[in-house]
Amino acid sequence: MDWSLAIKNYSNYLKIERGLSVNSVNSYCSDVSKLATFLNQFKIDDDISTIAYETIKEFLYYSSKLISSRSQARLISSLKSFFNYLQFEGLRTNNPMELTETPKIGRKLPDSLSLNEIDQLITAVDLSKPEGFRNKCILETLYSCGLRVSELVNLKISDLFFSEGFIKVNGKGNKDRFVPIEKSTKVLIQEYIKVHRVQLKIYKDHTDILFLNRRGRQLTRAMIFTIIKRLAEIINLKKSISPHTFRHSFATHLLENGADLRSIQLMLGHESITTTEVYVHLDRKHLNEVLQKYHPRN
Fold this sequence. Notes:
The structure is a single chain. The chain is mostly helical and 298 residues long. The protein has two domains: 3-88, Orthogonal Bundle (DNA polymerase, domain 1), CATH 1.10.150; 115-291, Intergrase catalytic core (hpI Integrase, Chain A). It has helices at 3-16, 22-41, 53-64, 69-88, 115-123, 132-145, 149-153, 183-196, 221-234, 243-256, 261-268, 273-279, 284-294, and strands spanning 160-161, 166-170, 176-180. The protein has a three-stranded antiparallel beta sheet with strand order 1-2-3. The longest helix has 20 residues, at 22-41. The radius of gyration is 23 Å and the shape is globular. The termini are far apart. The relative contact order is 0.09. The model has no long low-confidence stretch (mean pLDDT 90).
């Protein structure tokens, strides 16, 4: 079996058998494709059943000069998964990546925004434009519900359980969770649906998607990045931000206001509390307040 067919079958396995999201599947397959491209570029005639660790090691060394340690770690993880799949399908008798160690990358805390900076970004939305109110709703929903950008663009009208005060979110690994929604955000979304969204000519397969573009189709992740980048330029924000910055700010502000990590973990949809601890960093002022309030000597 050649590489292109193996990668195609691997993609179907990740979607159907493991239930991974489209973004995760694309990332895994992209990493494996890099190995296939390397073999073709240097005219190495190894197929999926014969390629040895020595060749893969050359590829990893070559890649290490082009990508970050974090990307290198993901590349190794993707290749391990791919060769495990080949073993599972009986296309290999061993996994050449079995003894390969993943580089230590540490934990990088993303930037967070203050409440004032979030308000500035939302205020900078031009409500005179047709998409203005939609963009305001998008920012409010990202922040007040702590959503991933993929969760936001896939949010459906049928996922809104406003009478119960929750929205249903389809997260990583195709797992659903219920996230409480703040009253003012609920009011904004209702106005967007009743006043602004109804003016669009909605594409037939996208009638249940909440946030739509001007052509009545589902928004892309890239479009959300673009909206936020433009607003940051308008207010002259000197931080490097993305949709994920709103999610991190949501968690940080909850913790600083007294929420417990377990509740934040459930709202963010993290399987492990350790992941939540990475997102939720504490500033020194908050640490000092905790010390003064809870230290036994006080």
